[in-house]
Amino acid sequence: MISLRRQFATLLLVLLAALWLAPRAHAAAGAYEAELPAELASARDMCALVPCKDVFPGASHFSERKGQPPYVEAYDQASEPRKLLGYVMLSTDITDTPAYSGKPVVTLIGMDTQGRFVGVKVLKHSEPILLLGIPESALLKFNAQYLGKSVADKIEVGQSRPDENVLGLDAISGATVTVIAQNQVMMASGSAVARQVGILAPTVREPARYAETGKRLSWAELVQQGTVQRLRVLPEQVGLDKGPDPFIELWFGDLNHPDIGKSLLGENGWNNLRLQLKEGEHAFFIVRTGGKESFKGSGFVRGGIYDRVQVRQGADSFTFRDLDALNLYGIEAAGAPSYNESVIFIIRSHAFSAAYPWKLSFLGNRVDRATGTRSFTSFDTPYWLPATMLQGGRPTINEPDAPWVRVWKSRAVEIALFAVLLIAVTVVYALREKLTRLSTHKNKWPVNAFKYSFWALSIGWIGFGAMAQPSITQVLTWFHALLFQWTWSLFLSDPFIFLFWIFIIVTVFLFGRGLFCGWMCPFGSLQEGIYKIARAVGFKRFQTQLPQKWHDRLKWVKYAVFFGLLVVSMFSMGLAEKLAEVEPFKTTFLVGVMNRAWPYSLFVAAILGVSIFIERPYCKYICPLGASLAMPSTFRWFGLKRKQDCNSCKACAVGCGAQAIDADGRIDHRECLHCLDCMILYTDTKGCPPLAKERKRREKDGLEITPIGKNGYFIPIHPATVQDQISAKAAKGPDPRWPTAPVLPQTKAGSRSLRWMAKELVDHLWPWSREGWASRRALQIAGFSLAIAASVAWVMTALGTLSSGAIIGWWFGWSVYEVLIRLSGKRYVKDGPWWRDQYRRAGVMDMLSYVGFKNLLIGAALFLAIKTVVGLA
Fold first, then answer.
1. CB–CB of 79/145 below 8 Å?
2. How crowded is residue 320: how many other Cβ atoms within 10 Å of its Cβ?
3. Spatial contact of 90 and 40, defined as CB atoms under 8 Å apart
4. Its pTM surpasses 0.85
């Protein structure tokens, strides 16, 4: 045993030394959220702004932008005669495919005249910190795999399939979505330029064959059937102050179709337009009906280029010069709006076909109001003629699957097994009472066999394998998405994290946070595993717990960390993500301790080192993710069982590793990690002191030893009652089955059905009370003023005169006030399912949890309602 202890200690020292001293591949984060020149998207001399030589080392001279989509020619020298070596392209000139962060990876790409990639450089990305935390060096290494490969090759992320002529690329562990999106960017960019310069055959689309009815349509009818579309950009979308008017509002539509063209231009106008179009050319119109911004742009003034609008169809982009524009003298469709700028554009490329979908893009600069940085972005509206207006209907289009769909398909087996694991954990825990009745304090294996197995799978497969460690950054992202813009594709992009969060949300409201934190959290399981192994090899005598008074103080630190990150995220999500490094998850599982700077690795080593001596120190005192899950755990439906004697017997409290049982025997489900040791004692006739005492009495008196009932006591022997088994001291104490003393609001007494629902609604929306008016009259009166101000703020937000950040500030202020006013009057919360009238006295954290969660849902509903009203307007 001594030898085993020494081996363990030596191994631990080696691990700590390795974490501290090992060399690290810590790449400079120069491309992460790098500030690019504001004029990069429109400058003719692109290579004066970005290092084109880095992606085409053999070139010494680069042309100005040419073609559509734009590209740059690379030459061996500046003077004649010079040799064309290849082409350089900026990915965002061609495609804005978003990666996992929801933003594109801005990439500079070099391609020779044969279509082979010769250089790749990431100029800007948003991937490492947001959610996944992949190291930048891994992204650079992934891009290097393209060098030497041809744009004509069929390149996919994954294994090569020679029988299908597929060249495979090695993915980045934990960042599958990012690299799939990046592969689409590389291939779409290279293909678009290769088609222009003749390396690849140009796109061929069947021309449209129109189905003509001869009917003249009004403007409203054209809009209703989708043949006239609107592109609307709001001021806040480009970083300006929110206002009642749009930044720009454009209406556009096809003019080649006889029904549409004649409805808009009239018979003579449409016939005149047809005379000016050559075979294969296509016309559409644009009018500006709102906003002060022009769609012509500065390029029109300098060189006759309309650099603010563009038509995109598949991988092809079409821009316009003054020679491609005709005057639009008027719209004859009944009910057409007034406009202050108009034009008819002609698409002269035969690659365009009105039978296929296309989109109009408005291109502009967006200002980040927090940093002042400018970024080029586009706002798109899709357009596709209705099937009834095309002979034979719309053509069949095989669109590539979205990145998140491809991820789900490529890892279907693993995802299915993961889902089965989560279901199995839930089922096993739901049957916990049967397992604990099979266990004793000396033989916990009926429970521990499952628990230890889940720990091992959580650490090995979920943590280090699938890298599916949930994080507080996801909570912050979901919080912002719920309030501002919910995007399913963002959350579906990582199937393991997505399924894990479904499991977490469901089980938190059913059982509390303990099932995830105590059984399935990879880092929590790693801490627990270290603690258990250390105990098994002889470190038990060094293991301890903090004194209860210090534990009761330090457990609030994690809540302070969580609220701090939440507040910071309202001002800067980027800064919040950086501060979220207080979580060791990214270093441990996602990036790896060998790929981080020494402070991060030392932080992980310190936590795991302390875990040898204190059970789950990070979970209990620091974890902001645990704090965020602890708050809704206040309202879990099912708790762990307690009996009246628990208020005087300390057996469970002494053995509680989470220190979640107070002096009155009550379990704090916000802190409980569901080890189930107390549930094992609950029915253990030898381990539970009250049961052991009753068992001995019955054995001495020769009485029947009956089974343990659901209440935790022996089933009574007639005519005895359970009350005979409860000690006199325990009978006089508080009821430990309730986290706090039970109460029943007078307003709820005797209510049923609709009346009960009405009172329930009023109880949640109306925080004032008679009790509060009697004790805190000034606070109650002040609340009416604050309520009126907050209501006005919501109305101003709906009218577009108040920013989202301002309304969030008002809502936070109202929530703080509501906590105070409810504590002074309506000091109660529900315990268990919401449809039951089980109320108990609320502590400060109870009220914070209730008000915070309730107002988050109300705020999200109001935001959605406002957006719906604004959208309809």
1. no
2. 23
3. yes
4. no
